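User:
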Amino acid sequence: MRLGFLFGAGVSLSCGALPTSGLTKAILWGENVHRHTNGTYYLCADGSSCGSDHQTPEQIRAFLRFLDSQANDFFQKNKERHRVANYEDLYYLATQLTDGVDEYENPALAGFLASAQARCTSENLFDQTRRYIKGIVSERLRNLAPQQDHLAQVVHAAADTSFSKIEIFTLNHDCLLRKYLSGQKFPSQQDSNRMPRVYAVGTGWSSPKAA
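Assistant: Predicted structure:
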């Protein structure tokens, strides 16, 4: 018998991870965000000592607030008033705009693209917006540490010989699941086919590397 787990973002909250709303707030209003010379975005605890580009992140945040407004207006008009745009929605919009400029022409996107281009304050703003979201979310999740009993049910399931295979599907962007499993000793460790296997699904980007 095979066993599968599907984990969402809530599985990491007990370890101090920001909820989706918190990550969205962090990219919309985050402070001390800087752009490295290699094009990546990172957090600096002391903004005065980083000595890198902090003007571009502010331009991106202004553009993100425009995207946020557009997305929420769309949800309101389409009777999804309970829904509020999150960082994944904003990443998807930035990706659409980037593709609309760099990859292919999309007539259905023309009006939105023209409106967004009118707000461009720097070169490659659409792609930089994607990089910014990816960088800040990764920074916020990178150094989380699993708790001692975090996801203990997975370990218990691995010890149950009635399961021939255990698969874990996660929507998370953090590394907590892999960190936790790598620190466990499974009774079935000699049988690689019965070790829990983790698959990241629907995340849109690779999980940040563990520090």
